[in-house]
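Ticket opened by: R.M.
Priority: normal
Category: complex prediction / small molecule

The reporter submitted a protein together with D-xylitol-5-phosphate and asked that the result be attached to this ticket for the collaborator who will pick it up next week. Submitted input follows.
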Amino acid sequence: MKARIAPSILSADFGHLAEGIAMCIEGGADQIHLDVMDGRFVPNITFGEKVIGTVRKLTSLPLDVHMMVREPEKYFESFAGAGANGMTIHAEVAPHLQRQLTRIRELGCRAGAAVNPGTSLVAVREAVMDLDLLLVMTVNPGFGGQAFIPASLDKVGRARRMLDEFKSNAQLEVDGGISRHTIHDVWRAGADTFVAGNAIFTADDPKSEISALRMLCLVSA
Ligand code: DX5
Ligand code: ZN
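Result attached by the on-call engineer:
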């Protein structure tokens, strides 16, 4: 299993977004994570279709769009049209989860479901076969730079066992507080895809931080 690193551009300097994306490419990022927030599902507001389209023009890397929005289905067509490769919706605001995931796949995108720290994995269990990605939030969403919630480790382990039980090949992604201090344990718990914002963009050498994080998944200690 390869560890995938997904830099979150939430922590990038938006005045120099092109340089930030170029850094991710040169550093060997596996996908770019874009945090869409609506000020309703989460307290913060970020960006939408326009920035997804801007990033699309800057890279051919997969664009992993994390939709922290209510009524996410309103945006599926426009985000897919702007160049999203994957869209992850939150189980907390997806009463018709199976239908919504199916629609994302119909649009040619990878379908993801996310669970907040306080949300049980049971919320996605019946839709596992409709998932290409399961996102276990390791902070409460809304802001970059928050501390990793330690109880998440056990939850990631349970998420891995659930995917294995269904023989699912879905990516198991974690998001929030991933850094040199936390990534190894989360990898050991069973995650394979790691979103990192602050850890990469505030590093002394952001480009080499991407491979440094990935390497920490390989060491056996
Ligand atoms: C949080 C976002 C994250 C955020 C992670 O609500 O979903 O993707 O950018 O930032 P760090 O890695 O700084 O915790
Ligand atoms: Zn995110």
